[in-house]
Amino acid sequence: MHHMFQEILQQPAVVANLLDHQQAAAREVARLVETRQITQIVLAARGTSDHAAVYGQYLFQIQNHLAAFLATPSVVTLYNSRPRLRSTMVIGISQSGRALDVMEYMAAAREQGSPVVAITNNPESDFGQHADILLDLDAGQEHSVAATKTYTASLAALALISACMCQRPDALRALFTVPELIARAVQETSGLARVAAEVVDESECFVIGRGLNYSTALETALKIMETSYSRARAYSSADLLHGPVAAAQSVPCIVYAPRDAAHQAVLETAERLRELGTQMMVISSDREALALADHPVHIPAGEMEFLDPLAQIVAGQRFAYHLAVARGLDPDHPRGLTKVTVTR
């Protein structure tokens, strides 16, 4: 069995472990936000971690009513500029703890006196030295080059921080149901090996999500490109309609349509694709959405909508894995990639 598949299966236990052991650190972040009167959050990351940051960008705005933005590390590392970060908390995310450009951005923030939080699976690295507070993903070594369990753990860490910040016991209680939700998602996606075998000759696809699950679309597209070498492009369902839909008739689409605030908008996009005759995989808990699909994939809904991305991504991970295997490829060792990519 490939490491990638084993690590997908480990995700319920990884998230449960993080929730059990990182509450104190998350509460300290919440305390810092309050005492420092933080009004906005900047999230700095690269690659898969950057997709977790996209989730955080939506999460903190929706759940915590804080402005949230993605950092552009090259502004600091290449252009030698220093954005003013007054009343801003910077959250750096790096599974390996070796993202040099992210560390430079974090260091620039600390020079201005801004509080900095580090989220990493390598707490012994230099990454944590640039932060006031560190959250350890503690996911165990990830052997596959294609990250899975560290991505989901990063989402859980951000969700834990958000739940502690909003001081809603129901949000924190709902978060602790996520390991079981992910376990159910693993069970529900067992049929994706068959789907992958049916579409094995497709060379490209669009992956569509919106709001909290735009991050899910981005991460799914990356996993497909990394492991199967297909051209996969992620779009917000809104952005798809601003041009790319013209190409969608001939391009298979994967559509994330959980029952959240963005559901109706995504459903309308899926209906438009159906009218065009687009081949679709729809990932949802909603019967109406699933009925539009050539390949429906049922994923159970979380108790609160901000939890759905932690389960929805399982479908994308498993599909990418099975597609690679169906093509006779090794998803653990994609060509041209290493586990750690260092950029400036």
Describe the structure in your own words.
There is one protein chain. With 344 residues, this protein is α/β, with parallel strands linked by helices. 48% of the residues lie in helices and 15% in strands. The protein has helices spanning 3-9, 11-21, 23-35, 47-64, 74-77, 100-111, 149-166, 169-175, 178-188, 192-198, 214-228, 237-240, 263-276, 287-290, 308-326, and strands at 40-44, 67-70, 88-94, 116-120, 133-136, 204-209, 231-236, 253-256, 280-284, 295-298. The protein starts with a helix and ends in an 18-residue tail after the last helix. The model has no long low-confidence stretch (mean pLDDT 94).
Topology, number of strands: 10
Number of helices: 15
Stretches where pLDDT is under 50 for at least 5 consecutive residues are none
Strand order of the largest sheet: 2-1-3-4-5
Structural class estimated from helices and strands: alpha/beta
CATH first level of the largest domain: Alpha Beta
Distance between the termini: 35 Å
Q: What best-fitting shape do the alpha-carbon axes yield?
A: globular
When the domains are counted, the total is: 2
For the sheet with most strands, the description reads: 5 strands, parallel
Helix content: 40-55%
CATH architectural grouping of the largest domain = 3-Layer(aba) Sandwich
Strand percentage lies at: 5-15%
Query: What is the H/E string?
Result: HHHEHEHEHEEHHHHEHEHEHEHEH
CATH superfamily of the largest domain: Glucose-6-phosphate isomerase like protein, domain 1
Q: Would you tell me the overall average pLDDT? A: 94
- Using the CA coordinates, give the radius of gyration: 19 Å
What fold name goes in the CATH topology slot of the largest domain? Rossmann fold
